[in-house]
Amino acid sequence: MAVERPQRRATLAGVCAVVLWAALALLTTFTQGLPPFQVLALGFGIAGLLGTLHTALRGAAGWQAWRAPPSALALAIAGLFGYHALYFYALKHAPALEANLINYLWPLLIVLFCGLLPGVRLRGNHLFGALLGLAAAALLVTRGQGIDIDPSALPGYLAALGAAVVWAAYSVLNRRHAEVPSTAIIPACIGVAVLGGIAHFSLEQTVAPSAGHWLALLAMGVGPVGAAFFLWDHGTKRGDIALLGSLSYLAPLLSTLLLVLAGRAQPHWIQAVAIALLMLGAWISLRAAPGAEPV
Fold this sequence. Notes:
mainly alpha
């Protein structure tokens, strides 16, 4: 029982990351008017700067924790930047409703992919819970209405699917670097900020952020784009990744609720149905025995 406690704490850390990501949509509404890659570069830049300051305060031990094999650093940068680049492309070249729905395949893909990992047992409870979560996300995104597939938006749909695959693959492959401290995510954030800056200056026109923009960007860098990736790194490396995949559907639910509470979205009865489905899926997933041996 004692051996399972570190795994449970790591799983809880991953769930905390999901909760922080739920605030991203609301914070993004406060950056309206800024180009997406500029937001990406500044958000990750702030996260990297804050992480670097924290490392400097820890002295030599902090800098030591930055050390990671090139393969681990490359995986983190590719996962973080690749996901966001594909997602932004999808939103630009496909209707947001359909693109978001396709993007929310990533928690289900995590559950499916983790079955390929050594030492991980995928249980039916995890899969069924993830499917209920997908159904809840579909209801939230479509509000119970049909979707209109536009053939001309196929590149955008493929990009959204690519984003889901990239994030699921990164989350699962990250477990192969369980020995790398999660603080090594800081240089990865800096790498993503640099790539985001290159994409911004190559493809977008710079817009001077207002004071409100900077406050939203700072909040992003501290939470959804900062601490969240540190917590997710820890959770995917040492937690129950199948359970994490199932519970990741908390993100669209909490995101919708935050938007409603902030007056940025209208309440709808379908949200109550989605909550019920998600809670049922989470309960079913939690009833599964631990899906992975502690690393």
